[in-house]
TrEMBL record:
InterPro entries hit by this protein: Na_symporter_ssu
Highest taxon listed in the record's lineage: Bacteria
Keyword flag Transmembrane helix: yes
Protein name per UniProt: DUF4212 domain-containing protein
Bilayer-spanning residue ranges: 15-38, 50-73
Keywords on record: Membrane, Transmembrane, Transmembrane helix
Taxonomic placement: Bacteria, Pseudomonadati, Balneolota, Balneolia, Balneolales
Sodium symporter small subunit domain: residues covered: 8-84
The keyword DNA damage is annotated on this UniProt entry: no
Record organism: Fodinibius salsisoli
Record Pfam families: DUF4212
Length: 86
């Protein structure tokens, strides 16, 4: 029973991380790329409007960073629940 409860806690923590990181990506891609595109377009970076940049590239960069954050969080969680590899 103790091991099963431990794995339930592990799984819930994993789902919490996925939910938070997916929400961040949604806010950046949908919020900055669609909803806030007009205010962000008043700012230019390298000749491109910031709203356009977020819609085309920014959300992809944020997604890649979130992948590395997820790996770091999961490695920490694996060690906490003693399910890490090697």
């Amino acid at each position: 029973m103790g091991k099963e409860k431990n794995m339930d806690e592990y799984w819930h923590a994993n789902l919490r991380y996925v939910g938070i990181l997916t929400s961040i990506w949604f806010i950046v891609s949908f919020g900055c790329g669609i909803l806030l595109v007009e205010p962000l377009n008043s700012i230019q970076i390298g000749g491109f409007k910031l709203g356009f940049w977020f819609a085309q590239q920014g959300s992809i960069y944020v997604f890649v960073v979130l992948i590395f954050v997820y790996v770091w969080l999961m490695n920490r969680l694996d060690k906490k629940f003693d399910v890490h590899e090697g």
